[in-house]
Amino acid sequence: MTLDTHVRLRLGALELDLELTAPPGELVVVVGPNGAGKTTLLRALAGLQPLDAGHVTLDGVALDDADAGVLVPPERRPVGIVYQDGLLFPHLSALENVAFGLRSRGVGRGEARRQAAGWLRRVGLAGREHTRPGELSGGQAQRVALARALAPQPRLLLLDEPLAALDATTRAEVRRDLRRHLDSYDGVRILVTHDPLEALALATTIVVIEDGRVVQSGPPDEVRGRPRSRYVADLVGVNLLEGTVRGHDVVLRSGARLTVADVPSPGDVLAVLHPRAVALHRGERPAGSPRNVWEGTVGALDFEGDRVRVRLDGPVPLVAEVTPAAVHDLGVEEGSTLWASVKATEIAVYPA
């Protein structure tokens, strides 16, 4: 049971043109900036947005083939969908909402209610069968929406930012439950999210979409370790620099040079370094072992728990991650001038 698709369509200013293959047993998480085409992709897979060209094939069966004139309507596709806000029917109880998905597949009323009750027990909502959506918490409502999508045993499950509307505490709890239920589901699973923690915690494969195209795809560790665009680097929280190998250095677009420990083959490369590898200094240029030292101006300070991310603007734009105590001791503030140093061994370089 494998999803194989080539989606080509134009919707307003968006031109979507991408290929995606998703085998069962993997959770494919699709990420990308606003307007990249993530939700439009899900709508195309669900049959809610016709293709201009291309195909959607599930387990060898064509659900959409623009060239052959095949277009299976949404209600006849073996697809379950969970949206950000759940989209539960407000006038129906939790039990009736879950049973609706089964009834729409032809299951009789009594059997649909029996199976729906079982699914509510599985998602931890036993005893809330007769509760309407307006009386449920956000997390409970999303569990009902997940049960409604899974109850008909779809071959393809689409999740469009299912945790985005929840507060931080509830999101963490529902994320754990979601992972457990998805692990027990044997169909094809595709989840869209903006949350890097969600993507890295849930995905077996991450697919990055920008401007309607796939720019990177792979396991979370590979995407984290070798980002291929500025968006991906920001998503996983690292610095990404573009340059060209010249001798034993990497020359950046600005003309600044990086000294690296392992020099790759000549050509265009990407260099990645973690913000925690960037040391900050005030006053005179620091002396010592680091061969990469640059001056920069503090552009922004972002306080995140027990760490502070300091953005430095200059010939080598960087983000450094330090403690609040270091910010205080160095007198760091927006507009101040600092030196940044990075050891050559802390920079990973790979072909662009």
Features:
alpha+beta, 21 strands, 25% helix, five-stranded antiparallel beta sheet, Rossmann fold, single chain, six-stranded mixed beta sheet, 9 helices, OB fold (Dihydrolipoamide Acetyltransferase, E2P), 352 residues
Describe the structure.
With 352 residues, the protein is of the alpha+beta class. It folds into 2 domains: 3-231, P-loop containing nucleotide triphosphate hydrolases (Rossmann fold, 3-Layer(aba) Sandwich); 240-351, OB fold (Dihydrolipoamide Acetyltransferase, E2P), CATH 2.40.50.100. Helix content is 25%, strand content 34%. It is built from 9 helices and 21 strands. It has a 6-stranded mixed beta sheet with strand order 7-8-9-3-10-11, with helices on both faces. α3 (109-122) crosses α4 and α4 (138-150) runs parallel beside α5 (168-183). The longest helix has 16 residues, at 168-183. The protein is elongated, with a radius of gyration of 24 Å. The two termini are 34 Å apart. 36% of the residues are buried.
